[in-house]
Structure formats: structure tokens, C-alpha cells
Write a sequence for this structure.
């Protein structure tokens, strides 16, 4: 009991320290007291009820966020609904938004593919007027270049800076006599390390199929800005990077360094489970997997997890394949858009601090990185290589940005389908590249008609 009380007090003090530097003299969005504060001091009135949909389990932060907001904003009450961030869950959210049946006022999109599908469907509300009305300084808090415009308007604001990472079993690494990889290591280095970590009882590598395949990583690292598109608007799927990604992906399976592609899909294997149950010594994931590393009830283990930077196509590169995520949008049909934006403004400057222990790094530029890392680790320093985590968070990265979204979901599907054919040996390399390029260009042309 004492330990729980001390932990709660430590978290409260840490949050205060993180935001103290940006709360002196004015509030965190650089404006006068917010409309939400003014409203809460006005005469009592019937509370506006808002629904927010996200995929993070309530116990990993959202419950604390909603409780904190509701306790300080009696006039605007939030209700959180969790949807699964998979095909079924995303379809459920899309259906609710399009049908306007029990739809959320605010929703999170995870990744550009999901967001682009929704913005093109017209279910997101442009935030620019609300940003101006409530004096939310996007550039000062998040950075204007970290928000991609849709037809000249902001239809989302990102809540986190997601960092992709290679998670490594430290005990396995030490047994192999290898050092922790540093920023700028390559995919060739990754393949060599996977071979050294590979044993009869533990695979050297695990990369989620099909979503995290190495072809996509190669395309992004080769061209971080509008990775899928050439200057003339066609696909980049015949670039040398595609060939390298395909060869890496197939080699993992052919050399027995990873579970086979169809087995990953059929058994619904995920990186955190493979790493933390000792089935794989090295997995591709990110800081969001911290909550699983700390969850010894679901994943009993006693080794430390190393958080290494993302391997690069070329030595010395600094592309991180993730970037700004947890894209917050307002439902275009919500009758409570002002109240919804007041919550978003608060969340992006204060509320998402409560998400840090669950492994989500806030998008705000005003956070103290060392204190955030300490909050992420919490009382699990015995399970995390803290120095590697801090080095990852402090790294200097180039993040991918997609300003073009023509046929983007279809192109992602094409990458996955053609990669699977090659990896499974039913289609040769050159045929795979040709088919990937032809199909992608056709998809782009079809959508432009």
C-alpha cells in the first residue's frame, strides 16, 4: 500500500515539474485563461457530454486522463471508448463516423493510412478557426511542420511523437558478446546481429507481418518526404530501395532468423509477446511497447530490454520510421466542436502527460526529456536499459512526412501483397518489383480520374 501511495505522489510531483517551466506567467498554449476555465467559473449549467474513441487500454492512461478532465471541467464531461486498432476496429470507427450512429465527437487515428482514409471521406472537421479562436499556438507547442495540411487546412493535431525502435533482450545480447547498437547502424548490421542472436530455442529477429515489413522501411528511409511518390506523382516502387527491402525480408525467413511470414499472420503473433516470452531476441517495435515490457503479469520475465535506434539503409542515416502519431480529429458532424477543441487543447498541453507511464511520448516541444524518460520507466528500472531508452528519446531524427495521399491505402496493401508473394517463393524478385510498380501506378491513375 505504501509503495502505491509513494508512486502516486512521485507521479504527481513529476508532472508538476514537467509542465512548471511552461505554466509561469501564462497558460500552456500561450493564451489568456482558456474558455474552458471561464466556463467552469460561470453559473452552473447542464454538462455537455463528449465521446472520445481511442485504441489505448483505459488502464494505460485514458482512464486517468478522463478522470482528471471530468473533475476539473464539470460543464464538459468526457466518456472514453476503446476500439481495437486493427482492421475490424478501424472499420467500426469508420462506420460510426460515416453513419453518424453513436459516433464520437473526438477520435484518434493511428498512422497516416487510417487518417487519410477518414479525411478523404469527409468525416474530419478543419481545426484552423478553432485554433485561432482559442489561441492555440501550434508552432510553439507542436511545430507547424509536424502537421500535414489537407487542402490547406489542419484536420488533426498529433498527440505523441512515436519513436520506432529495435527492442533487444539484453541477456541474449551479452551472451552473444555484442554491444548495444548506436544511431546510424544499418540493416546489414541488423541482419548480422540477428544471425549472432539466433539459437535453436530463440529466433534472432521478429518483424511484424505484413504491416512492419522491411520493404516499407526501405522506401521510407530512402525518401522520407512523400516516400511513395515520384516528382511526377507516380510510385517509387521500382527504386533500388525496394529491391533491398525485399531481399532483407526474404533472407530473414530463408536463413531461419525469424518465424515464417504466414505463421506470423495465421497465429497473430506480435512483437511484445515474441520478445518477452523469450521466443525472439530482437524485435522491431517502438516506445509504445514500454507498457508491455513493464507488464510482468502478462509477460513474466527478468531480463532487461534495450531500446536501440532504427537501422538505416546507409550508414550514418537518421530516419526514424515512425514520427508524430495519435492524430486527434473532431468529427465533422459533432454538435459540440468548441467543447471538443477545448479538450484537445488541454490534452496536448497537460492531459497527455498522464499517458507517459504507458510509453507515449507527448508531442509537445515543452517537455523535459529526462523527466519524461524517468516517468516512462517508473519502478521498472530492473526491466529496462534506461540509458538506451534515454538515448533513443534524445536522438536527432528525420521523420517521414506524407503530404500526398493519392491511393495511399491501396499502395500500402500492394506493398504487403507483393512482398508476401516474393517471401513465399511464388514470385521472383524482378517480377515482384515490376508488379508492385505497375499496380501502384495504376491505383494512382485510377484515383486521379
Amino acid at each position: 500500500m505504501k509503495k502505491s501511495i509513494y508512486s502516486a505522489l512521485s507521479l504527481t510531483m513529476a508532472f508538476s515539474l514537467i509542465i512548471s517551466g511552461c505554466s509561469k506567467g501564462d497558460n500552456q498554449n500561450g493564451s489568456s485563461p482558456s474558455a474552458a476555465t471561464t466556463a467552469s467559473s460561470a453559473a452552473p449549467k447542464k454538462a455537455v457530454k463528449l465521446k472520445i474513441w481511442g485504441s489505448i487500454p483505459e488502464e494505460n492512461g485514458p482512464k486517468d486522463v478522463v478522470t482528471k478532465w471530468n473533475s476539473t471541467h464539470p460543464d464538459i464531461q468526457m466518456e472514453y471508448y476503446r476500439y481495437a486498432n486493427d482492421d475490424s476496429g478501424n472499420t467500426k470507427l469508420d462506420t460510426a463516423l460515416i453513419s453518424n450512429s453513436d459516433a464520437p465527437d473526438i477520435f484518434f487515428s493511428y498512422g497516416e493510412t487510417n487518417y487519410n482514409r477518414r479525411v478523404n471521406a469527409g468525416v474530419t472537421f478543419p481545426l484552423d478557426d478553432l485554433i485561432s479562436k482559442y489561441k492555440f499556438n501550434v508552432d510553439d507547442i507542436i511545430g507547424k511542420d509536424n502537421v500535414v495540411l489537407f487542402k490547406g487546412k489542419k484536420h488533426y493535431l498529433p498527440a505523441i511523437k512515436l519513436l520506432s525502435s529495435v527492442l533487444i533482450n539484453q541477456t541474449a545480447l551479452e551472451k552473444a558478446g555484442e554491444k548495444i547498437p548506436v544511431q546510424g547502424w544499418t540493416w546489414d548490421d541488423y541482419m548480422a546481429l540477428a544471425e549472432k542472436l539466433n539459437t535453436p530455442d530463440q529466433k534472432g529477429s521478429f518483424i511484424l507481418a505484413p504491416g512492419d515489413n522491411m520493404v516499407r522501411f526501405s522506401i521510407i528511409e530512402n525518401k522520407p518526404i512523400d516516400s511513395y511518390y515520384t516528382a511526377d506523382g507516380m510510385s517509387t516502387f521500382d527504386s533500388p530501395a525496394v529491391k533491398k527491402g525485399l531481399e532483407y525480408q526474404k533472407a530473414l525467413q530463408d536463413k531461419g532468423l525469424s518465424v515464417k511470414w504466414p505463421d506470423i499472420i495465421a497465429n497473430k503473433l506480435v512483437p511484445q509477446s515474441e520478445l518477452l516470452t523469450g521466443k525472439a531476441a530482437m524485435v522491431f517495435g517502438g516506445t509504445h511497447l514500454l507498457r508491455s515490457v513493464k507488464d510482468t503479469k502478462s509477460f513474466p520475465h527478468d531480463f532487461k530490454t534495450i531500446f536501440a535506434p532504427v537501422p538505416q539503409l546507409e550508414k550514418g542515416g537518421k530516419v526514424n520510421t515512425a514520427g508524430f502519431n495519435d492524430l486527434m480529429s473532431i468529427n465533422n458532424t459533432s454538435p459540440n466542436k468548441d467543447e471538443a477543441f477545448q479538450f484537445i487543447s488541454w490534452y496536448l498541453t497537460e492531459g497527455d502527460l498522464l499517458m507517459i507511464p504507458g510509453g507515449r511520448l507527448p508531442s509537445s516541444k515543452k517537455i523535459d526529456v529526462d523527466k519524461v524518460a524517468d516517468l516512462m520507466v517508473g519502478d521498472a528500472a530492473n526491466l529496462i536499459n534506461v540509458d538506451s531508452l534515454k538515448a533513443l528519446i534524445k536522438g536527432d531524427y528525420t521523420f517521414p512526412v506524407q503530404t500526398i495521399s493519392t491511393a495511399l491505402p491501396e499502395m500500402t496493401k500492394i506493398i504487403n501483397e507483393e512482398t508476401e508473394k516474393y517471401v513465399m517463393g511464388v514470385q521472383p524478385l524482378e517480377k515482384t518489383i515490376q508488379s508492385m510498380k505497375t499496380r501502384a501506378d495504376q491505383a494512382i491513375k485510377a484515383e486521379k480520374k
